[in-house]
User: Fold this.
Amino acid sequence: MRDLGDLSHPERERLQHLIIGSRDGVQGAINHLHLLRYAEPFEWSRLFPVPETGLVIIPQPGEVFSYLLRYRQMG
Assistant:
């Protein structure tokens, strides 16, 4: 199933990025991706608190998932 945003650009694929961590950690990762010229900070959504019930991610049929865990030095 294609995202409606893809209809005018069939050669483009939608990729979703998710960064979960402390406020400083998430903002730091966004800034780092900006330094790498991957994404502008304004392209990211505002920061949302994770609810105590957690998050549920429902992929589209045929989508796959990859997960990377990194640690950052605090302080």
